[in-house]
Structure formats: structure tokens, C-alpha cells
């Protein structure tokens, strides 16, 4: 930490113990080091110049948190008693979680809950008996309403086939008229700028109409017939990402669109037709679990694949806007097990979560941060083991911290029940 005075030639005296400085205190001559994870320090200083009055005391309070370390202020207690599949943040800092849990910190809450910003359970989120089975995906609308997908057939006793929308207080939004809904769980939900909702999952019907694995809903929950992909897809969709131009990226176990081979990742036009300008063909050899779009339009994919067009790419790759491999994204040996989730930072760095335990040969416990070129950011999680099991969901808070959800019980030797907040 550096200290400067606007008065040329002034001598600066400072303290680091919170007391007011005097001319008997340490003389400032070089930057002050504040080091050690969790270290807090209050620095006070004055500027003294002969023939002039001493300056007022100035002060600064610092707490140092190493990137990748646990935010101990997130008071989740025992956390969830089952896997957390999805995490979403509200504009007010509250956090909505979905999964297969039935309690949070010992309090009953079935498959969905809202947390206060400090990690405690928000008891004002009145879900009633909630969904009757697991919640696999959550998306926030601009108006604060919450769209959820999962294996449930009811929400608070009202029939809702695998998809529902909640009011801001957790009650069911009955104006979201899904009919009988989907016949299988949506694993991914994305809300477009116009309020329409794109879903992907294991369903083949929506409100008794054939709609295989991906669909777009109108703002009232009805099927958007203008998104004409109907029976085009052939297998499960695990990931959905939206581009600014209205195009939709899908990742999953899908291997084709009608008669066109597009294995595991494809892009659709805004009307649901296949975008043939994004030509991945048979480039991948296994499932894509996660898709993210960077600000420059390049596309990140994560999954269980080992190559892209014969070029080795273990579990992670970046594609150009036309679907070709971005050879400048140098992952080396990549992740040793599947990548399940992404969060792209504003500085271009990339957070990844999954079931991996190393990245390019360096140990990383289910969580890592990459530089913009794909190399490992070794300053992130440089100390500590990370999570002890799967990280399934990653969400940046925008305040220098991010949330992780999954099936872990420990983060760097501290007990955490499937959710944690991490310093970035």
C-alpha cells in the first residue's frame, strides 16, 4: 500500500495498529506490505512540513483475501442436506438455490430455497410445501420472478409439469400457464431480453405437443410456435446459452438436427432452425455439459470430450464464432475429468467447475480459474485444496466474490454443505 502527500517535501508518519500517528511514529519511505489470507490492517498517516500545520489524520482499512479462498462470512451453517444443482442471484443480493435437498441448515425446505446475502435461510420465501421433486435449473427474470425446472409434478400442491414460475415471495405464479408442462426435466433455462424463455432438457413433449429436448416459451408460459424446432433434436440438452443476436447455443448428448450431424453442440437461429454457419459436425467425441458466450462472441464448451476435430482438448475448448476450434486457447492437458460449469469474468478470465481434480497437470479441487488464453491462473486457489467433490454451478456476484453449488461437503478443510462463497 502506498501513501503520498500533495505537499512536496512533506514527511509522512504512519501506524498500522489503529492508533493515531505522531512524529514519533514510523516514517514512510516505501510501500507497506499487507499480506496473509484474512489479514486485516488499519493504516493511519499524517503529513508534516516545517512551517506548516500538520495534516489531518487519514486512514485506510484493508482485509486481504487470496483468490480462491473461502468467504468465512457466508454463514451457511450445515448448508443443504443434498446436492445443489443450480444457483441464481437476485438484484438485492439474495440467492436462490435448487437441488435435491430437503433441509437447509437443519430447517425444512424442499428442493428450493432462498438465502439472505449472508448465507442464512430467508424464511420470508414462502414456498408452502414447494415442489414435490428435485429442481435442476433456475433463471431470474428482470421483474424478479423466478423460473424453475426439474423433475417435479406439483408446486405447493398445484400441478406443474417440470416447469413453474414463482413470484418474488416464493409463491406460485398462476399466470404462468404451462398446461400440463413438460414430460421431463429442463436442465437449462435462459431468459431472453424480450422475456421469452428458452429451455433445454430431457423432455419430448410440452403441453401435449411434440417438442423434443429444446423449446421456447412465451412470457405467459405457453409454447412459442415460432421457435420451430419441434422434433428436430435427437437427444438430451444439458446447456443453453444466448447470444446477443438472438441465436441460441445448445450443448448436450444430442448428435443431430433432423438429418444434419451436429454432435454435442450446435447453434440455432432465432426461429429455432439450425444455424449452418456454426459448423461443428462430428468434431466432438462426447457430451457437452456447459456452454458460455464470451463478450467477443467466442464460445466456451465444457464436458467429457477428449478432442475437437482430432485436436486433443480434454473436457474444455473454445470455439470461434463459426464453430471452428480457437487454437489460441491453449489448455494443455486440460481438465482430467468433466467440466460442468463456467463463469466468464469481465477481465476475460474464466472460472470453471466440475468433477476434475487437476488442470494441465496441476492439482485443482473441482474449481479453477483460467487466464484468457486458456492457461491456468496459478494465483487462484494457490493455497487450499478447493472443493472435495463436484462443483455443478458457478455464479459471480459482481462484488469480488462468487458462489459455488454442488455435492461437496468440504472446501479447503472447512465444512460446507454443498454451497460456498469464494473470494475472487
Key descriptive features of the protein:
mainly beta; three-stranded antiparallel beta sheet
How would you describe what is shown here?
With 424 residues, this protein is mainly β. It has 2 domains: 11-63, no CATH class; 84-423, YVTN repeat-like/Quinoprotein amine dehydrogenase (Methylamine Dehydrogenase, Chain H), CATH 2.130.10.10. It is built from no helices and 39 strands. The strands form 15 sheets. Strands 2-1-3-4 form a 4-stranded antiparallel sheet, with no helix packed on it. A 3-stranded antiparallel sheet has the order 5-6-9, with no helix packed on it. Strand 35 (391-396) and strand 36 form a beta hairpin. It is globular. It starts with 10 loop residues before the first strand and ends with a strand. The mean pLDDT is 95.
Measured by DSSP, the beta-strand proportion falls in 35-45%
Query: Number of helical segments?
Result: 0
Largest beta sheet: strand ordering:
2-1-3-4
CATH class of the largest domain: Mainly Beta
Instruction: Provide the CATH superfamily of the largest domain.
Output: YVTN repeat-like/Quinoprotein amine dehydrogenase
Classify the helix fraction into a percent range: under 10%
User: What is the CATH architecture term of the largest domain?
Assistant: 7 Propeller
CA distance, first residue to last residue: 20 Å
Care to count the β-strands?
A: 39
According to CATH, what is the topology of the largest domain?
A: Methylamine Dehydrogenase, Chain H
Biggest pleated-sheet summary: 4 strands, antiparallel
Could you say which overall geometry the principal axes of the C-alpha atoms support?
globular
Question: Helix- and strand-based class?
Answer: mainly beta
Low-confidence stretches: none
Query: Rounded to an integer, what's the Rg over CA atoms?
Result: 25 Å
Number of discrete domains:
2
Average pLDDT, all residues? 95
Amino acid at each position: 500500500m502506498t501513501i503520498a502527500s500533495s505537499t512536496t517535501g512533506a514527511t509522512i508518519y504512519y501506524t498500522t495498529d489503529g492508533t493515531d500517528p505522531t512524529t514519533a511514529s514510523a516514517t514512510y519511505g516505501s510501500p507497506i506490505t499487507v499480506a496473509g489470507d484474512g489479514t486485516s490492517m488499519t493504516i493511519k498517516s499524517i503529513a508534516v512540513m516545517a512551517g506548516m500545520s500538520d495534516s489531518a489524520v487519514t486512514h485506510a482499512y484493508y482485509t486481504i483475501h487470496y483468490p480462491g479462498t473461502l468467504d468465512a462470512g457466508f454463514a451457511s451453517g450445515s448448508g443443504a442436506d443434498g446436492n445443489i444443482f443450480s444457483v441464481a442471484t437476485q438484484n438485492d443480493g439474495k440467492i436462490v438455490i435448487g437441488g435435491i435437498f430437503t433441509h437447509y441448515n437443519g430447517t425444512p425446505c424442499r428442493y428450493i430455497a432462498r438465502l439472505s446475502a449472508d448465507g442464512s435461510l430467508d424464511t420470508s420465501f414462502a414456498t408452502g410445501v414447494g415442489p414435490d421433486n428435485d429442481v435442476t435449473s433456475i433463471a431470474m427474470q428482470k421483474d424478479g420472478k423466478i423460473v424453475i425446472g426439474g423433475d417435479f409434478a406439483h408446486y405447493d400442491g398445484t400441478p406443474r409439469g417440470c416447469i413453474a414460475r414463482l413470484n418474488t415471495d416464493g409463491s406460485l405464479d398462476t399466470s404462468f400457464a404451462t398446461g400440463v408442462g413438460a414430460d421431463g426435466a429442463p436442465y437449462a433455462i435462459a431468459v431472453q431480453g424480450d422475456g421469452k424463455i428458452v429451455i433445454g432438457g430431457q423432455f419430448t413433449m410440452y403441453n401435449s405437443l411434440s417438442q423434443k429436448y429444446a423449446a421456447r416459451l412465451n412470457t405467459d408460459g405457453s409454447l412459442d410456435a415460432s421457435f420451430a424446432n419441434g422434433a428436430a433434436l435427437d437427444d438430451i440438452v444439458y446447456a443453453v446459452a444466448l447470444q446477443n443476436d438472438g441465436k441460441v447455443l445448445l450443448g448436450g448428448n444430442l448428435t443431430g438436427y433432423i438429418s444434419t450431424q451436429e454432435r454435442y453442440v450446435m447453434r440455432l437461429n432465432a426461429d429455432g432452425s439450425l444455424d449452418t454457419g456454426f459448423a461443428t459436425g462430428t468434431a466432438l467425441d462426447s457430451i457437452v455439459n456447459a456452454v458460455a458466450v464470451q463478450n467477443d462472441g467466442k464460445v466456451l464448451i465444457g464436458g467429457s470430450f477428449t478432442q475437437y476435430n482430432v485436436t486433443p482438448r480434454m473436457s474444455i475448448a473454445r470455439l470461434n464464432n463459426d464453430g471452428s476450434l480457437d487454437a489460441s486457447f491453449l489448455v494443455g492437458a486440460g481438465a482430467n475429468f468433466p467440466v460442468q460449469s463456467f463463469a466468464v469474468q469481465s477481465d476475460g478470465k474464466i472460472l470453471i467447475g466440475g468433477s476434475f481434480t487437476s488442470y494441465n497437470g496441476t492439482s485443482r479441487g473441482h474449481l479453477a480459474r483460467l487466464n484468457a488464453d486458456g492457461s491456468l491462473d496459478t494465483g487462484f486457489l494457490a493455497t487450499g485444496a478447493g472443493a472435495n467433490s463436484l462443483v455443478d454451478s458457478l455464479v459471480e456476484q459482481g462484488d469480488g466474490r462468487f458462489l459455488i453449488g454442488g455435492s461437496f461437503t468440504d472446501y479447503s478443510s472447512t465444512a460446507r454443505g454443498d454451497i460456498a462463497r469464494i473470494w475472487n
